[in-house]
Amino acid sequence: MAAGDSGGHGMKDILDKLERRRAAARAGGGAKRIETQHARGKLTARERIELLLDTGSFEEFDMFVEHRSSEFGMEKQKIPGDGVVTGWGTVNGRAVFVFAKDFTVFGGSLSEAHAAKITKIQDMALKARAPIVGLFDAGGARIQEGVAALGGYGEVFKRNVIASGVIPQISVIMGPCAGGDVYSPAMTDFIFMVRDTSYMFVTGPDVVKTVTNEVVTAEELGGASVHTTRSGVADGSFENDVDCLLQMRRLVDFLPANNAAGVPEWPSFDDVAREEPSLDTLVPDNPNKPYDIRELILKVADEGDFFELSAAYAKNIVIGFGRIGGRTVGFVANQPMVLAGVLDSDASRKAARFVRFCDAFEIPIVTFVDVPGFLPGTDQEYGGLIKHGAKLLFAYSQCTVPLVTVITRKAFGGAYDVMASKHVGGDVNYAWPTAQIAVMGAKGAVEIIFRSDIGDADKIAARTKEYEERFLSPFVAAERGYIDDVIMPSQTRRRIARALAMLRGKRVEWPGRKHDNLPV
Hints:
Number of helices: 19
Distance between the termini: 77 Å
Largest sheet: 8 strands, mixed
Oligomer: single chain
Structural class: alpha/beta
Number of domains: 2
């Protein structure tokens, strides 16, 4: 009988020991460092994962992994987990893989063992064909490990590239992110930042000062405001960790699990045939008066739910996800409120990247067009506008997903072609009665065609009116079949929904190739 007793005790001891080891791993860098993290207004890696994933769904892997370095006294400092928490869980019931850098352990710095934990989770996510979310808060490579850490980065980078276009990859910058750490996010699909507590740069302020004598703070060099407004590196920023992670849950709900799964379908309480009479007066009578294109997106999308991306960068174009009939669509829309909605280099790149993401993941694209052309001037031309504009043209032309386009007002010049016109592959192209599809505006056109009449104001006025009546309407395009129908603005949601339903089985064959040569 005694033997049985000791067996019971033995098992209890083993289980106690497991619990103790788990508790030690969960404590990360210890209470003091966790307090410091909280004092900075930041959550710990595990707290962040809890918020991102459904309650109780997180399964942690590699909790007991430690580094194997013996240089610079590192053999005396070992903490289980080695500065990154990895595993999987669910977001509203759908599987998501996650890794979160733990700043309380060696400043979240990357070692060989730390990198191996990340690559393991990347491999699992790719095999399981489920999204992966990386939460960054770290001081770069672990200097004590030298080239072994750099090798670790390379392994992570390679997997980012292999997974690109197969599973959605989201990077959330929630603290420092420098050196090698910035390239992995740069190759993922989306980057989000937290205001005032996060920054990204290849080389930090100290090195910048040494090399170029510029004195700059971390925030000025690579804070959220820089990357969401000037560089366009980040797709958005949020007030704090909590807001950011809750928004990431919302984003994941829009995304397919992988490139073959198709878009998720959620129950919708919004009638697909809903009419919106206010849209009949959205476009002002004066063609030079702006209006907010977001109003159109919000009135067309299910329940007015629109997840906008890069809202503070290249504001002359609006991109983001919404749903129609419970299924995700990508919206791309010129914004007449900013620069009259012209296309410039930044707007073209912003939209091109989004269009390519949607195409890679079989997300249909709805395009709203009100574009007076490309932005003229030396700044744009010297900055490579021709190539950047071509990126958007290339992206749309390459799409095999359903493309539904609505021209609300201006569609002038080459910009008409670029914005998902019939000619480059638009499936269903509608125009509102207010649409003006032409090579250029009436005044410019008349001054070229009737150059000899320029001195005669009456003649020019008469010619302009004539030109406007003939060309600044949707009917010239409709007569040629470039527009499938001229529709009532109030009917826009119903017509788009029907077009998308009809296009669900769309298939396009492309000639075989290794890969294209995008005008990068």
